[in-house]
Design goal:
The chain is built from 4 helices and 6 strands, in the order βαβαβαβαββ. It has 152 residues and is of the alpha/beta class. A 6-stranded mixed β-sheet has the order 3-2-4-1-5-6, sandwiched between helices. α2 links the parallel β2 and β3. The N and C termini lie far apart (28 Å).
Length: 152
Amino acid sequence: MKLWVLRHGEAQPRANTDAERPLTAHGREQVLRSAAHLLGQPLQAIIASPYVRAQQTAALVHDALGFAEPVRTVPWLTPESNVQQVIGELERLGLEHVLLVSHQPLVGSLVGMLEHGHAQQPAPLSTASLAMLDGDWPLAGLMTLRALHHSA
């Protein structure tokens, strides 16, 4: 399995709720730079948090890649989602090549858990950072972090 984990691009600091914060112009540029690393990858699904900034990030990647399938929106990719639940959902999907679009602290904790098997070493994903992991199964400690791209 190959798993790409993308943190949303830079977002406006304020909105009515955290979930409603949109991307900034700089955030959109960051996302497009990160999307370039996904060109030619055999993605089967783009799965995103329902938060506005993650939806905008996923849509930008979707369009940049000319991805045929619609973005899947799921409630288990919000900032405070449970890492073990996310891993379970990934297992249930049964897909081999997946892009997740979400937020900190979830993305750092998820990458750290998949790589190290515990939550004590979260990955340092800044806005629009893209992590690529691979392994036989999306299980804690059984995936290898192959690349971590940061967008300035």
